[in-house]
Specification:
alpha+beta, four-stranded antiparallel β-sheet, 11 helices, elongated
Length: 414
């Protein structure tokens, strides 16, 4: 799913026959699946005279690397055309990715100065140039395998991820990643003698390495760094905390081994939504018990609490009720429960104000009289049961067929 400059040769490839493969859109497919980090020129249909066009062109090379070259010969170029570009030593072939006034904006965004330091475009690539370019691309894979063997033999603590030969085969750039400083001076001498080219070692970060190699992310789509993302911003674990994500390194890390870049995509939205969420730094106090915060649904505005004596059951509480409970706790009051926020239950057992005191005395008098009568009747009932014969009443009740005869071998003890 990349262009020819990415060595895979998918849709948008333009070979020796000068015919574009795939969707026939000359390497600028609108579906986003033709080229790596492709762009859409939304000013391409505007007819601008050649002499008034912006003379700087954006050219794309292997791995999505883009540079800017001056069109000094006023060539009539189109997106996807292969051009021969000037380099510090020799030349290199790349494809045109953007031209016109949009290039001016890109240069301002990337802080590229429009001065005499910009290299030039020599010509449009001929079939002979493209054939030589394909031969240089064919050397990349075998060269990388051999270079890895040399790195292993020299016991250098570095990882080679990609190799790019210049189209004239006079220079080879090795991209590597390392955790510490590496002395590869001896390695450069061996590589230069074996591949007969000038060697350049360029260190890249792990995220840039993942962008050059590509792959499929956990979302099922191509990696952002290999399709459209060019600026890598700093990502911290606080971004995961704001979004209530589990701090599991295996789930938060991408293929590069670092925190996923997509953690920053919705971070500002979560921060705005969290402004309405109350800060609960202590359990809520209720008559039913203490309730601890278990989970917060930020966008639904619901907070889930669980009691200490029942940790398996979570109760969804709205933000309004949580604020009410917090205000009650601040006053030293406790609601009945998380669902019932009233406090009248605390005073319902107390005598109602304004009741006649004589009526209260009469209620107390008659309630004590009924209690005394009940106790006397219970005593009389127990006496009658004892005078009605020996034996165990409870045993007789359990076994009614058994008579209350005294045991054999003796009567009642006197």
């Amino acid at each position: 799913m990349s262009c020819k400059s990415c060595s895979t040769g998918g849709c948008g490839t333009r070979g020796l026959t000068e015919k574009t493969s795939g969707c026939q859109n000359n390497g600028a497919c609108g579906t986003g699946g033709c080229n790596k980090m492709n762009v859409f020129d939304w000013l391409s249909d505007m007819d601008v005279p050649v002499m008034k066009r912006f003379d700087v062109v954006e050219v794309k090379f292997k791995g999505g690397r883009k540079e800017y070259f001056r069109n000094i010969n006023q060539l009539d170029l189109h997106t996807g055309d292969y051009v021969v570009c000037e380099m510090a030593s020799g030349y290199h072939i790349g494809s045109v990715s953007l031209q016109g006034d949009l290039v001016r904006l890109q240069m301002v965004k990337k802080k590229v100065a429009n001065d005499e330091n910009l290299k030039s475009i020599y010509r449009v690539a001929t079939p002979r140039d493209l054939e030589k370019h394909e031969q240089s691309i064919a050397r990349d894979l075998t060269t990388m395998y051999r270079a890895r063997e040399l790195v292993k033999d020299m016991k250098l603590n570095m990882k080679l991820s990609d190799v790019e030969f210049q189209s004239d085969n006079t220079k080879a750039t090795f991209y590597y990643s390392a955790d510490e400083r590496v002395d590869f001076r001896e390695l450069i001498k061996v590589l230069a003698g074996e591949f007969k080219a000038r060697i350049e070692m360029r260190q890249i970060s792990l995220r840039q390495e993942a962008g050059r190699l590509g792959g499929i992310g956990a979302c099922g789509r191509e990696l952002c760094c290999s399709t459209w993302l060019t600026d890598f911003k700093n990502i911290t674990t606080s971004a995961a905390r704001y979004q209530n994500l589990s701090l599991n390194p295996t789930k938060l890390s991408g293929q590069c081994g670092r925190l996923k870049c997509c953690l920053n995509y919705e971070l500002e939205t979560y921060i705005d939504a969290l402004k309405d969420i109350p800060h609960v730094d202590a359990p809520l106090q209720t008559q039913k018990g203490k309730a601890h915060l278990q989970k917060t649904d930020i966008f639904k505005k619901i907070m889930w609490f669980g009691y200490e004596n029942d940790s398996t059951t979570w109760h969804p509480i709205s933000l309004e009720n949580v604020n009410r409970i917090l205000s009650l706790n601040a006053k030293g009051q406790k609601p009945v429960s998380l669902e019932v926020l009233e406090i009248e239950e605390l005073v319902s057992l107390l005598p109602a104000p304004g009741i006649n005191s004589d009526l209260a005395k009469m209620d107390k008098k008659f309630s004590s009289r009924d209690r005394d009568q009940q106790q006397s009747s219970n005593r009389n009932r127990n006496k009658k049961k004892k005078g009605g014969g020996g034996g165990n009443p409870s045993a007789n009740a359990a076994n009614p067929n058994k008579t209350n005869n005294p045991p054999k071998g003796g009567g009642e003890k006197k």
